[in-house]
């Protein structure tokens, strides 16, 4: 049996009296694209931060490629992060750095690559996301939102990770640009042979990039299945969410 690249087992996380994660169980296989859907406040971002090691769960276990990394730190945690890429919801580009310096940030600051070599790698990676060398010396404020997302994608893949996290990758984009970003995500993840975990409430995006879709509701995974079955899940919570209906067991957060 193949060892899961990522496994969350009974993960809980609370902030004061607010129980955000209430026993999350989740597995991601090598090369698999899993999309986690759920409404605002369902715990998606907190789950992601726990998986990345940016937070430590109150209880439960997190495994990376068969190793328990729940409370790892220092070199052990750094070794895991070296094999993981991340595309943040806002892009999280550094305004004071040029596009190529953003893309090559890890190569320069962690891998200690020479700047000339790092720049060459960055320009090569930018080409993979349909951006030419002329963009490399611009600053984030000088390019469009869609281009910023592509720069962020380039940064997430430059180290050829085994696992990539995508946090709301199409937020703030028009439908055509969002679909183009989805195409690039598919192309690059499949090209690397990497696994991907995406959190989103953009259902067209979820249907396009996912092998499996899981739904997080009130701190637990309440359903998981093939992306092709999400519209006929038989789960009333999933059905309400994917069809965007106000009526149903999920109460609007207003």
Would you mind describing this structure in some detail?
- By secondary structure, the protein is of the alpha/beta class.
- It is 34% helix and 24% strand.
- The chain is built from nine helices and ten strands.
- It has helices at 44-52, 74-81, 99-103, 105-109, 115-128, 145-157, 175-192, 203-209, 236-242, and strands spanning 6-15, 18-28, 33-37, 59-64, 67-68, 84-87, 163-167, 195-200, 212-217, 220-226.
- The strands form two sheets. It has a six-stranded mixed sheet, sandwiched between helices. The chain has a four-stranded antiparallel sheet with strand order 2-1-4-5, with helices on one face.
- A hairpin with a 2-residue loop joins strand 4 and strand 5 (67-68).
- Helix 7 (175-192) packs parallel to helix 8.
- It is globular and about 55 Å long.
- It starts with 5 loop residues before the first strand and ends in a 12-residue tail after the last helix.
List the topology elements:
Blueprint: E1 6-15, E2 18-28, E3 33-37, H1 44-52, E4 59-64, E5 67-68, H2 74-81, E6 84-87, H3 99-103, H4 105-109, H5 115-128, H6 145-157, E7 163-167, H7 175-192, E8 195-200, H8 203-209, E9 212-217, E10 220-226, H9 236-242
Parallel strand pairs: 3-8, 3-9, 6-7, 7-8
Antiparallel strand pairs: 1-2, 1-4, 4-5, 9-10
Structural class: alpha/beta
Distance between the termini: 45 Å
Low-pLDDT segments, ≥5 res: none
The biggest sheet, with number of strands, parallel, antiparallel or mixed sense and barrel status, is: 6 strands, mixed
Strand content: 15-25%
Shape: globular
Question: Rg to the nearest angstrom?
Answer: 18 Å
Whole-number mean pLDDT: 90
Portion in helices: 25-40%
Annotation, overall tally of beta strands? 10
- N to C succession of SSEs: EEEHEEHEHHHHEHEHEEH
Number of helices: 9
Describe the strand arrangement of the main beta sheet, using strand numbers. Answer: 6-7-8-3-9-10
């Amino acid at each position: 049996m193949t060892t899961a690249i990522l496994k969350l087992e009974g993960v809980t996380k609370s902030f004061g009296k607010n129980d955000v994660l209430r026993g999350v169980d989740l597995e991601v296989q090598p090369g698999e694209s899993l999309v986690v859907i759920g409404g605002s406040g369902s715990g998606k971002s907190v789950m992601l931060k726990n998986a990345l090691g940016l937070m430590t769960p109150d209880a439960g276990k997190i495994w990376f490629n068969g190793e328990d990394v729940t409370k790892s730190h220092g070199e052990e945690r750094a070794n895991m992060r070296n094999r993981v890429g991340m595309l943040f919801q806002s892009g999280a580009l550094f305004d004071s750095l040029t596009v190529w310096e953003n893309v090559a940030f890890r190569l320069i600051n962690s891998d200690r690559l020479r700047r000339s070599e790092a720049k060459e790698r960055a320009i090569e990676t930018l080409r993979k996301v349909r951006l030419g060398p002329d963009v490399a010396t611009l600053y984030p404020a000088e390019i469009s939102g869609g281009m910023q997302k592509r720069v962020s994608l380039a940064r997430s893949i430059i180290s050829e990770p085994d696992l990539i996290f995508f946090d709301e990758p199409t937020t703030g984009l028009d439908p055509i640009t969002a679909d183009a970003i989805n195409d690039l995500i598919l192309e690059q993840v499949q090209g690397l042979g990497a696994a991907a975990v995406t959190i989103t409430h953009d259902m067209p995006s979820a249907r396009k990039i996912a092998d499996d879709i899981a739904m997080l509701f009130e701190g637990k995974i309440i359903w998981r299945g093939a992306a092709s079955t999400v519209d006929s899940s038989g789960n009333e919570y999933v059905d309400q969410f994917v069809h965007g209906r106000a009526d149903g067991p999920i109460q609007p957060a207003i």
